[in-house]
Amino acid sequence: MRYTVIDDNEMDRMIIESFFKQHLDFELFGSFSDPIEAIHQLSNYPPDVLFLDIEMPNLNGIDFLRSLPKPPLCVFITSHPEFALDAFELFALDYILKPLTLDRFEAAVSRIKSFIDIREKALSYEHYLEDDTVIIQEGYNTHRILLSEILYLEALKDYTRIFTKNKSYITLGNISRILESFNTPQFKRVHRSFAINPRYINSIIENNILIGTNQIPIGKTYKSTVSEWKKSSF
Predict the structure, then answer these.
(1) Domain co-membership, 92 together with 64
(2) Residue 79 in contact with residue 116, Cβ under 8 Å?
(3) Are residues 178 and 201 in the same domain?
(4) Residue 22's domain spans which residues?
(5) Residues 176 and 138 in one domain
(6) 3-state helix, strand, coil in the chain (%, to 5)
(7) What is the strand order of the sheet 2-6 is part of?
């Protein structure tokens, strides 16, 4: 896997690169102090993973990622916790606060590998709808899930994870396409990365919805919508 680092702090770039030396399956594919210098390479030859600072001269990391026609998997590394919501609205895979430690780095790498493994497996996962049941073909196994049993859905870029009480399933297709194929009003979009079945909500606390032990974030653009149906439903 190829990774690129963009950070105006040379020491932080060196730390990331030194940590990656323990992972021989990752290859450095560009190290930049200025995001402007990186735009051409990443627009034409995107890496598998991008480690990206946020506060940088000329262009911040959030706007840089938005500018890419096909953004790669992205891990933000920053001293600013206040940009986390914006980062996850852009489907960031992780958000690490500086100073970067080896343990936190290893957790991010583990998340990267898990995501890529899920993505590869999802290529063989197909789903189709039969009345009120979604049928997921997983290799030689077939899973039948009632739509009413789905707690929530999570977007994984071009894939979607479907959560039930006892298990989660991966299927190929972005969350918008999956919801459209379900063709039912029972699921509510609350974030670019999440849609929920409101009947399973335990509570809503500030910017999070609690379903069982899972916290679902409420995206900035969905707050007013959530407030409206919360008034009529609770």
Answers:
(1) yes
(2) no
(3) yes
(4) 2-120
(5) yes
(6) 35, 30, 30
(7) 27-32, 2-6, 49-52, 73-78, 94-97
Same domain? For 130 and 53 the reply is no
pLDDT digits (tens, 9 = 90+) for 111-133: 999 888 877 766 556 677 888 89
Per-residue tokens: 38: 């990186």
Instruction: Give the three-class secondary structure for 24.
Output: coil
pTM comes to 0.61
Question: Is residue 147 within 8 Å of 184, Cβ to Cβ?
Answer: yes
CA distance 101 to 108: 11
Q: State pLDDT tens for residues 190-224.
A: 999 999 999 999 999 888 999 999 999 999 889 88
* Predicted confidence (pLDDT) per residue in 140-149, tens digit: 678 899 999 9
Are 105 and 16 a contacting pair, CB within 8 Å? yes
Structure tokens at 89: 């609205």
How far apart, in whole angstroms, are the C-alpha atoms of residue 121 and residue 66? 27
Measuring CA to CA, how many Å separate 41 from each of 30, 36, 114? 9, 10, 26
The token pair that represents 162 in the structure block: 């479907």
DSSP E strands, the chain: 2-6, 27-32, 49-52, 73-78, 94-97, 125-130, 133-138, 141-146, 152-156, 159-163, 168-172, 188-191, 194-196, 203-205, 208-211, 214-217
Between CA 46 and CA 34 the distance in angstroms is 16
Domain count, the chain: 2
